[in-house]
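Quick log. Single chain, no ligands specified.
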Amino acid sequence: MILLLEKKFLTLTFFNIIANLTVPLTSFADVAVLGQLESHTFVAGVALSNILFDYLFWGFSFLRMSTTGLTAQAEGNENYKESFQILLRSLLLGVGIGILILLASTYLEKFGFSVLEGEKEVKSAGGEYFKARIISAPATLSNFVLTGWFLGRSKSATVLVATVIANVVNIGLNFWFVLFLDWNAYGAGIATSISQYLMSAFFIVLLFKEKDRFFQIYREIRIFSVKGYTSLLSLNSDIMIRTLLLITTFSLFRNYSSGLGSETLAANAILHQLILIGAFWIDGAAIAMETVAGNLKGNNNSEGLRKILKMALVSGFGISLFFCILILLPSEFLFELFSKSKPVVALAKEYGYWITPILLFGSFAFIFDGFFLGISEGKILRNSMIVSSILFFFPIAYWGKIQNNNHILWLSLSSYMLGRAITLGVVAYKRYFYIRQESFS
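-> predicted structure:
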């Protein structure tokens, strides 16, 4: 049984890593293509605008996380009716929120850029990017749900194909709109929006393959169940608070960076992209942990979960270490892919070594995230994020802002990842290792 679980975990991890390699290509393409222009203003503008999208889009990424865990538990218990109910309820929620964001986009843009710090030209470029990318709101949130549902059903290969198609199209459109049509930041945003709608269309086509199983049980499905939505929203609220705190942490970091000048902001944006790429590598194991943990909770196999968690922690650390070695050896070459500005590249190289502690500490945090998401323990994730943000991150980050010191800002992110690893690790050890529980009751 354990060998089968290990094989499943490694298979899912492999497909998730390949799929996740393409996910940061969306923002990578935006930054890298705009970095080929003579001015670094567009890169800085996209970095500033992405702070807003972190709240507006990634703030609702709980739709992906909760859908994966709940679907995995339903599949582990062979409750296919519940699996479809989770999909339909989450889709209804995602599309509804996406439409509301789109309708309020003008007000959101005005308010957002009035709060953010940045030079006038940088804000102008960020505004153009915002107008183009906000169009994708309904599709982006729908993709969170659809991705989560297919992952919860152990269909990582499906997610891989969807993300590859969408991101290859996004990269191609970026080159066309930005470098050939001179649409600059607006072109990068439009390319991303088109790719998101294409991804939704691909998922919908695949859903038709499930029609036979759906029509066998559709009369039993209750989409508008008060109890169902109460359970879904209760879990989602905890994960949403956790996610908003995560976003706030990185948003404060970038906003404080903007006070150090546009070149430092652009350099930090490059390093942030590399950290995101590394995080998506590690998330291959973390998302596999979500699926396997959900399945194990569904059939009440706590012993198997303990063994898989150990394996996932080792895998996540190994992936992060390999990534750090890979990117820091030819570091200047990688930085030059993002920007032609020599001062920006020099700054990115100066601060680049901070990637290592952030990702090494982060590897444990990400795996524990996947563990608790899979067994739907949103409150643990919420509480850990509150402690890590308030105690481990904010005091150091504010000190860096006062001192105008970028090294201290990067130290705050390293401390933050360490805090997440410690707080989640202590709970996992006490609940599932120190006291060897026999069930999830």
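The first helix runs from residue 2 to 22.
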